[in-house]
Design a protein that fits this description.
This protein is mainly alpha-helical and 217 residues long. It has one domain: hpI Integrase, Chain A (Orthogonal Bundle), CATH 1.10.443.10. It is built from 9 helices and 5 strands; from the N terminus they run αααβββββαααααα. The longest helix is centred in the middle third of the chain and has 20 residues, at 91-110.
Length: 217
């Protein structure tokens, strides 16, 4: 089988898109910050609840996903692999989530209620129990990328960006696979093999160091 060709956006492009979102669509900005902090799938991000986050510990538990079909409408199910995965998140994502929580408090207060741990993070529902449709995020993203002149960047390319940057930085494949929600590291390697740094010379030097004392004797 031929390997999948990917074209991840540059860090400069992602920063430009994030900055534009912060100026024009703060809720989408929060969603995008969590996306680039985790590499999670679109539906997984839409299904996040406040109880999934430990803002002090800078972690999130990804354990469900939003799907939308003509037959069943919007529903929340398990992740693609059926597994729960803890993921560490970035400080910018925490800052964006704190601002999102402030907006949720205002919306809840206006409706005569309080924000509950089980409330969805990304929702237009006054009761915070109906999630964003994944297609809604895509439409908002398309408007954003059009404004910034990055019409060729798909929202799924943010996953490619995360994988590319982490693997290029030398982060181990098992960690990257967990962040992306791949059941097997072989899946991650098959998709992103070109971005794994070649360390063949390092391998030879390591083996040389192991056997040099034996050769000396």
């Amino acid at each position: 089988m031929p390997r999948t060709e990917i074209n991840p956006p540059s860090a400069a492009t992602v920063r430009e898109l994030l900055d534009a979102a912060q100026r024009t669509d703060e809720e989408l900005h929060c969603w995008l910050q969590v996306a680039v902090a985790t590499g999670a799938r679109r539906g997984e991000l839409c299904a996040l609840r406040w109880c999934d986050f430990d803002l002090d510990g800078r972690t999130v538990r990804i354990e469900r996903s939003v799907s939308a079909t003509k037959a069943h409408g919007i529903f929340i199910k398990t992740t693609k692999t059926g597994r729960v995965r803890p993921v560490s998140i970035t400080r910018p994502a925490i800052t964006a989530l704190e601002a999102q929580h402030d907006r949720a408090v205002l919306a809840a207060t206006a409706g005569g209620r309080e924000v509950e741990p089980g409330d969805l993070v990304f929702t237009n529902d006054p009761t915070a129990q109906r999630p964003w449709r994944p297609e809604l995020v895509t439409r908002r993203w398309e408007r954003l990328r059009k404004r910034t002149g990055h019409g060729g960047v798909r929202i799924h390319d943010l996953r490619h960006f995360v994988a590319n940057e982490l693997l290029t930085a030398g982060i181990d494949v098992r960690t990257v696979a967990n962040r992306l929600g791949h059941a097997r590291t072989s899946t991650t390697l098959d998709i992103y093999w070109a971005w794994v740094p070649a360390r063949d010379r390092d391998a030879a030097e390591h083996l040389e160091g192991l056997i040099r004392p034996l050769l000396a004797t």
